[in-house]
From TrEMBL:
InterPro entries: Cupin_2 (IPR013096), GDO-like (IPR047183), RmlC-like_jellyroll (IPR014710), RmlC_Cupin_sf (IPR011051)
UniProt keyword list: Dioxygenase, Oxidoreductase
Residues covered by the Cupin type-2 domain: 96-164
Keyword Oxidoreductase: yes
Pfam family, one: Cupin_2
Region (Disordered): 181-200
PANTHER family: 1,2-DIOXYGENASE PROTEIN-RELATED, CUPIN
Name of the protein described by the UniProt record: Cupin domain-containing protein
Amino acid sequence: MNELGRLEDLPQDYRDALKAQNLVPLWPSLRAVLPPGKPRPNTRATAWSYQALRPLLMQAGTLTPIEKAERRVLVLANPGHGLEKMQASAAIYLGMQLLLPGEWAPSHRHTPNAVRMIVEGEGAYTTVDGEKCPMSRGDLILTPTGLWHEHGHDGSEPVVWLDVLDLPLVHYMEASYHVDGPRQTVQPGSGDRTHARGGLLPTPVFERARKAYPMLRYPWVEARAALLALAEDPAALECVQLTYTNPATGGDAENILGFYALMLRPGQTLNLPARSPASVFHVIEGGAQVRVEDQRFDLAEADTCCAPGYTPITLVNASATAPAFVFIADESPLHRKLGVYETR
Ligand code: GTQ
């Protein structure tokens, strides 16, 4: 490959003349924006231990009242991007949110899409677009772009969940903003129950406007049972993985990030090919070893890690007796829509 000219090779008066006209020569920076063969991601394989972060999150509960935080979140930030950027990857934001008994996180809506994966505690709920979504461990709750959402807690123990948003991308696009609103009125109807049987959808005979997002809550009991059923037949199926989908369209549950539940059989090693999107792994049940680049993370329950794109990933369930269940988020829908998705 050709050595390209450097900025320093150009006379200072020429560089000054360019700068005065808001002009930049491409060639000194060409390789940085179009590196050979594959991208040079800032995203670094990084893991966050729940055991290590939990006491700090609980401390936030005493240091900062909910009224002063609105959302009491510790962000899982990737050092490769700089912690202040609050990015796990180019498009993925991760946060651990704490809600204490009796607290209320007021209603708002925003352009970034969010989901919550419930990590611990009972009795909290999110109201999304007028639908009250109770939170239990392993449940996935969507708050797609533009929908009102607020969090409440009628229980007696702290509730923690993992927020996954496409905030870094939407912010990069200069399209990120929020609007505050009044407490929502809860409307009858629950999408998770009316859409719980795959292949059977409510018939919209008298409905005027169909909801773009008919299902907002994906209970873990349903996802877990579906994974166990998938693992049984065929018994040789290598990748026991489900995609969280919009039941009305069959497409991804949200527009930008993809969400999946994976079961690793006892003792299973799963080699995933290098694919362009970055991804996140969060252990719902059991333990999983994640090998990516020169890193090896031994994730216990509630631990989370992220991996850059364009690199193979190996997942191992070290237990010889128990399956492991892993929640995955990735940038696949975004890459597919943009036409840059690839597998190597
Ligand atoms: O719960 O609405 O982690 O608006 C970041 C932004 C959570 C939320 C986050 C948010 C929320």
